[in-house]
Write a structure and sequence with these properties.
Largest sheet: 8 strands, mixed
Distance between the termini: 15 Å
Order of helices and strands: EHEHHHHEEHEEHEEEHEH
Oligomer: single chain
Structural class: alpha/beta
Radius of gyration: 18 Å
Helix content: 25-40%
Number of helices: 9
């Protein structure tokens, strides 16, 4: 049985994909194909290149500053942090706040795969054509423009100009792209990372939070409609509370909050007659 794994977008919440992939590794699951949007595309590219879930976690932990870090814990991370922070650039064109060209160059160098064809597992990456509103699915050619387009959150990151089109975040049209794997795979595993609403929060959002929060609301409605019409074989949504898309100092909280859902994922995956690693 061929199994496809879909990883949703959601900024730092996408780090929840790492324990999910570690769980699949522990269960001996060997995905035949992957699909990802935004942060799911980044994590998916690492995994598709042959990295294990644990190796991805180790890489990420060397590139983030967490609450409670001090000079003793930051010093061993200094090289990774310098490379990570220097990869972002400020945009002065008014199309977005940040440029991520340097980040993508660094990530591609890290996974040592320039094209989709270089990957060990086939990968599909979703972006959105800004003018037509159509989904743009990348599965061949250079990786960098595909991933850069997929993570281009409107108003935050500069849109990508590619082959005559203006491309933005794939979450606008397909944040959890398990449907792209349905025809070629017998079973699909979908990892969703939309935040769990907190009704008691009454704080007024700033500009960026308004953009990201509105996108979350839209994505939730679109994903729910798709789940009702065509559910995946396995669907897991970790309960992620009070973690905004760009809260990168909450990486450890993402891992902690995602942990309970990994038992659910294991229980759902183990009975399936799926391909296992030898």
């Amino acid at each position: 049985m061929k199994t496809g794994v879909a990883l949703a977008g959601g900024g730092v919440r996408g780090l929840a994909h790492i324990p999910a992939l570690e769980t699949l590794d522990a269960c001996g699951v060997r995905p035949s194909a992957l699909a990802g949007t935004s942060m799911g595309a980044i994590i998916g590219a690492f995994y598709a290149s042959g990295w294990s879930g644990t190796r991805i976690r180790d890489f990420i932990e060397q590139h983030i500053i967490e609450r409670g870090d001090n000079w003793k814990t930051l010093y061993p991370k200094r090289r990774g942090l310098i490379k990570w922070l220097s990869a972002f650039g400020i945009s002065f064109k008014g199309q977005g706040l940040l440029k991520v060209d340097g980040l993508l160059k660094y990530l591609i160098e890290s996974i040592q795969a320039d094209t989709f064809e270089d990957l060990a597992i086939p990968l599909k990456v979703v972006a959105t054509d800004f003018h037509s509103g159509a989904a743009v699915v990348f599965e061949k050619g250079p990786l960098a423009p595909a991933i850069q387009a997929s993570i281009s959150i409107p108003g935050v990151f500069v849109p990508v100009e590619h082959e005559g089109r203006i491309l933005i975040d794939g979450g606008v049209v397909n944040n959890l792209p398990y449907d792209l794997l349905a025809e070629e795979c017998d079973a699909t595993i979908a990892i969703d990372i939309i935040p769990t609403p907190t009704e008691d929060c009454t704080d007024a959002p700033n500009m960026v939070d308004t953009i990201l929060g509105t996108l979350d609301l839209m994505v939730t409605q679109l994903t729910q409609a798709k789940l009702e019409a065509q559910p995946p074989t396995v669907y897991v949504r970790p309960r992620l509370i009070d973690i905004r898309a760009l809260d990168f100092m909450k990486a450890s909280e993402v891992f902690e909050q995602a942990a309970p859902a990994m038992d659910e994922l294991k229980a759902l995956v183990e009975p399936l007659a799926i391909d296992r690693a030898e």
